[in-house]
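Convert to structure. Protein one:
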Amino acid sequence: MTESKQIEDVLRGVVHPASEKNVVELDMIEAIRCEEDGDVHKIKFKLVFPRPDALASSIKAACKKAVEDAFPGYTVEIMELVREKRAHKAKKLEVDQIQLENVDKIIAVASGKGGVGKSTVAVNLAVTLAKMGYKVGLADADVYGPSIPKMTGTEGETPQVYLPEGYKEGDNTELIIPIEKYGVKWMSIGYFAAPEQALIWRGPMACNALKQMILQVKWDELDYLLLDLPPGTGDIHISLVHDIPLTGAIVVSTPQAVALSDVEKGINLFRNPNINKPIYGLVENMAWFTPEELPENRYYIFGKDGCRKMAEKYNVPLLGQIPIVQSIRECGDNGEPSAVRPGPVFDAFVKIAEQL
């Protein structure tokens, strides 16, 4: 099997014309691996640009040709992505936020009302970003109704504990190692409680548990950490925005008027002067229903374009509209997010992810 070091050495011969440095020197090559699929031998790696680059296609082609010439008989697959240079290290973090120092963007996924599919959107968005080549984590901040273990098929798994160098018993520096599946790092209070167990906690206890689920986790380097918030605008939300260095938020809703009235409360929460976090946009879930036998038909069960009108009212983008698809519910119940598979659901989430 071809070693990644040999492949890296070959890629040192590919020079970026604008900088006169090779793609390895520029830290543009990641995750080199070799795979065997039957009789097919593959070389895969990521080609990462710090910003949109007009020369991207020619550099990608040069990388592909260089590796193919050096390793005849191998199929070369390159995942191209844009990842902005990390600016978070310049931010001042509190001592207890040190595990977030290598997390680029922390995005809350919120909803004013329960039952609109917020967790479904959060899980599928996390999986989609991971499939696009980004390093992704998701923290289940809905401490009263954690659904991430069920939706990801990780029920019954228990996170391991990491003891940092120089650890001494009783100094409370242990870190939780998140569960990894589908290319995403998952963390939830659901991993520490039985599925049927009711967490009868007052606000301060729930807030402390939430902070532990985020701040005492060994996330390592991430491009995105998504926080699946509980519905509403209560204690947990206020605690979160003050104790976690959020980058911004996404708000999920259905198009019906009852749900949208609560969306306004969520928008105003993040726009409150004491909080002042950007809202990246709205996601309209359950936008319409299309029967499988009538693929051209759309039935607007919960109303039409409610989120589009709300987005215009508050001058925020409408990131995407997710239709009612039976497979989304089935996959969530079976522990395999719909976005794992190619198809219209994955395509819809790709459009949302691209706007992010």
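Protein two, convert as well:
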Amino acid sequence: MREKETFINILPEYGRRRLLMFADSIRDLAASFGDPRPLDTNETTQIAENSSETRRDILWQRRMQENKILMADHLQEVAQIMAHVADESRRFTPINQRRYKQIAHALKDINLQLKNIYIMEKENGFMELSLQIRSSKGGNVVTVEEIGDIISVLLNKRLTPSVNNPFFIDQELKTFYYVETPRFHVLTGSAVAVKENEKISGDNYAIFETEPGAYSMIISDGMGSGKKASTDSQMIVELMQKFIETGYKKEMAIQMINSVLLAGPEAGNMSTMDFCTVDLYTGTCELLKIGSAPTYIKRENLVERISAGNLPLGIFNRPDMDVNCRRLQDGDYIIMISDGVLDALSQGIGEDMMAELISGTDLKNPNEIANAMLNFCIRQSKGKVRDDMTVLVMGLWEYNSEVS
């Protein structure tokens, strides 16, 4: 007999109401900025011709109005995130008594006590499981991975411990979470070369898990080289990672980062952004590019080049974002590079030469691929490193396939 499914809010009702009240107050605050439309271009041009002081005043008014628009957008985004969290719910399915007794008995055999267990359906349709357990006094040390293996067998579903779980089960009653193992898993690699006569790279990158079942890579190439370029690109990488992990939409996160660059004390705070996210449940890959070098997707000997013709961050108030989506398959590779890699190749044909290089490689390990590409580019430039170079590689495999 199928157990009755119920939808339960993640937050208790009191906390949910308070969060929704906070969201409404933030929306009201955003609305208090009114409708700060920019000044008419023809009008400001005519006025600005009168004196340099008037021009400065108008430029200042423009900046203030643009900041008001940006602040209102930020507040609306925060309110939307709070409302989403307040109304977030999960479909809970209480486990049937026969299966519950099987799991409780299996855990008892290794001196663990089971109190509750629930099966939840996540927003993407995949399963998440929570169980309350504790270790009996004097029992052996048991890890969350061992528990996951046992439950996977009993439920006939491969489960992976959530990254927020404690590693060991102790005598304190705690709730442990497991997620359905994604269809794919990834291996990543990187290779970096610093520009000659510089001590620090103007490129920065990160590879991280945005949420269970989703991996991201990001490269930012700061304008110029050295410490100033590194500071700008590092800020972009760190802020983007924090915003995405917090729950901001990519577009709003990028808009906020762009505003930080524009508000900087120095002119010319320009940096590229190359951001890639892969859903390991579906194999969907989203590529978001702003002024960055091409990204390459390798499938056996076929290579697709994905380029963008837009400008870097820190130039316009509303940055132009180029977004591409692809469906990946078992054995595919994603190769992301900074501009310095292509600049090292000869005669301005770097993009085509890079595609041929990727197509011809028989290497399987992402780290070996990244290093081989970087070494090839350095050899092509006769050992000279004229600009910072970064290569990131992500390989995708299904769990039931072998990686040689």
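The two ends are 45 Å apart (CA to CA). The longest strand covers residues 112-121.
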